[in-house]
Design goal:
The structure is a single chain. The protein is of the alpha/beta class. It is built from 13 helices and 18 strands. A hairpin with a 5-residue loop joins strand 1 and strand 2. Helix 2 runs parallel beside helix 6, helix 3 crosses helix 6 and helix 5 crosses helix 6. The radius of gyration is 22 Å and the shape is globular.
C-alpha cells in the first residue's frame, strides 16, 4: 500500500489475490497528485465523550461522537416498493408523495413498522436523461417528479413509466403555481444553496419554478414524515454512493471529486468483467481538508425525514474501487479512506436525527468492514436470494441478529420470479 492509501493488490471473492497493473497504479497516483508537506491533522475523532458535536481546535476539526449509531426498533417488519410502481386511481402512471403517505398509513394499520423506497433524490429527466435513482443530480435536493401537483392528465397504467412526459406535465403545472409566489425567508435560510441549485437546473423552465418545486417537495416530505410519525411508521430511505458526473454536486463540489477516475467494483460471479459505475470518486485527502462538509450535508439531508437510512455500498467508507477512464473495470485499483472519521459522522448525525443506519454490505466485503459495522451499531443486510441453498433440510442460514432481512434488492429479480424458478 502506498502512503496515499492505494492498494497494490486485493483478495477477490474466490480468495485469489489480484495484483494491480503498473499502468493502473500510475494513473491513480497521478490523479491523486503529490502529497503536501506535513501539517496538523485536519480531522480528529473523539469517541463517547460529551459534548457531542463538531468542534475546532486550531485548524483541526474534532468530531465528538457516540461510538454506536442510534438504535431504532428492536424487531419489526416493513414493506419496500419503488415509488414509481405505487399506482393509484389518482395516479395510474406513477406514484407521488401523497400516494406514499397513504400507503405508509395503510401499512401501519396492518402492523408494519417501516415503509421503504428507492432514493428520492433529484434526477436528470430531460437532457441528459438518466432515470436511475443511483445516479442523482444531487444528494442535497429532492426529486420534483414525486411532487403531488394535484389534478394531472396522466396516461393509463402501463408496464413502463414515461418520466419525460410525466415531468413535463408537472413542470407546466408548477410554472403556473409559481407565479406570484415568493420563497419564505426562513426556508431560504435553512436551504442556502437552493437558489444556486435552481439556477443550475433551469432550462425549459425558469429558476423560480425549480425553486418553487424544491420548496413544495420539501414541504410534502415534511408532511409525509409527520403523518408517519403519528402512525408509528418509520421511513426507510436510501443514500446512493455517488452522483451524476454532470450534476449539481459534481459541479459545486468539483474540488472534492477526482476527474479521470470512475468508481466501480471488481470482477465477481455476477459481473466477470467487473463494473464501472461512471461517477467520480471523492479525493480521500481533500474531503478531510474540507472537514467532510459535503458528506455531512448529504447525510443530514436524507436523515432529516428518515427513521432508517440505508447507506449504499458501505465498503466505500473504507475503500473504493477506482477505474481509470479508458481502462477496463477489471483493472481497477482500491483506494482507502479514513473510515473511523466517516463512521463518527454517521453516528453523530444518526443520534441528532434519531435515525438508525443500515450498511449495504453485499459483494466483495473485507472482514474488517463488518467488524466496524458491528462496533459502530450499523445493521447489515440479509438477502434471501443470496442466502438461498439447495439443501432442503436447511435452505437458509439464520439471519444475523443485527441485520435487515429482505427477499431481494432493487437490482435483483422480483421474489415471485425467483420462487417460480426454484
Amino acid at each position: 500500500m502506498s502512503s496515499y492509501g492505494v492498494e497494490t493488490s486485493y483478495v477477490d471473492l474466490s480468495g485469489r489475490t489480484r495484483v494491480a497493473s503498473p499502468k493502473a497504479l500510475r494513473a491513480v497516483l497521478r490523479a491523486l497528485g503529490s502529497r503536501q508537506a506535513r501539517r496538523p491533522e485536519p480531522v480528529r475523532v473523539v469517541w463517547d465523550k460529551r459534548p457531542f458535536g463538531y468542534h475546532r481546535e486550531g485548524k483541526t476539526l474534532v468530531i465528538s461522537a457516540p461510538r454506536r449509531c442510534f438504535q431504532g426498533k428492536e424487531r419489526s417488519w416493513g414493506l419496500f416498493l419503488p415509488l414509481y410502481a405505487l399506482h393509484s386511481k389518482r395516479n395510474p402512471a406513477a406514484g407521488d408523495l401523497t400516494d406514499l403517505k397513504a400507503f405508509a398509513l395503510w401499512a401501519g394499520r396492518m402492523g408494519a413498522g417501516w415503509v421503504g423506497t428507492l432514493p428520492l433524490l433529484s434526477q436528470f429527466l430531460d437532457k441528459p436523461f438518466e432515470p436511475s435513482p443511483y445516479s442523482p443530480v444531487s444528494r442535497l435536493f429532492w426529486n420534483e417528479f414525486w411532487i403531488d401537483v394535484g389534478e394531472i392528465k396522466s396516461p393509463r397504467r402501463s408496464g413502463r413509466v414515461d418520466y419525460r412526459r410525466q415531468m413535463e406535465a408537472k413542470w407546466r403545472i408548477l410554472e403556473k403555481k409559481a407565479k406570484g409566489w415568493a420563497p419564505p425567508r426562513s426556508w431560504l435560510r435553512d436551504h442556502p444553496e437552493a437558489q444556486e441549485y435552481a439556477r443550475f437546473r433551469a432550462g425549459k423552465v425558469s429558476p423560480k419554478t425549480i425553486l418553487y418545486g424544491q420548496w413544495l417537495v420539501d414541504r410534502q416530505m415534511e408532511q409525509l414524515r409527520r403523518a408517519c410519525d403519528r402512525a408509528g411508521v418509520g421511513l426507510y430511505f436510501d443514500l446512493p454512493l455517488g452522483v451524476h458526473p454532470a450534476g449539481y454536486d459534481a459541479w459545486k463540489e468539483r474540488k472534492s471529486f477526482v476527474r479521470g477516475m470512475h468508481v466501480g467494483a471488481p470482477p465477481d460471479p455476477f459481473f466477470a468483467g467487473g463494473q464501472d459505475w461512471g461517477f467520480c470518486p471523492p479525493h480521500p485527502e481533500r474531503i478531510r481538508e474540507q472537514g467532510y462538509d459535503y458528506f455531512i450535508r448529504c447525510v443530514r439531508h436524507s436523515m432529516r425525514h428518515a427513521s432508517m437510512l440505508r447507506v449504499d455500498h458501505i465498503m466505500g467508507l473504507h475503500r473504493l474501487f477506482w477505474v481509470p477512464e479508458g481502462m477496463p473495470a477489471r483493472e481497477g485499483v482500491y483506494v482507502r479512506y479514513r473510515s473511523e472519521e466517516l463512521y463518527a459522522i454517521l453516528s453523530l448525525e444518526s443520534h441528532r436525527n434519531r435515525c438508525a443506519v443500515v450498511g449495504e454490505d453485499l459483494g466483495t466485503v473485507p472482514p474488517e468492514v463488518r467488524r466496524s459495522m458491528r462496533r459502530h451499531g450499523l445493521s447489515g443486510m440479509f438477502v434471501v436470494q443470496y442466502e438461498w441453498s439447495p439443501n432442503s433440510r436447511r435452505p437458509l442460514r439464520a439471519a444475523p441478529r443485527q441485520s435487515v432481512a429482505c427477499l431481494n434488492t432493487h437490482d435483483m429479480p422480483p421474489f415471485s420470479a425467483f420462487w417460480k424458478k426454484h
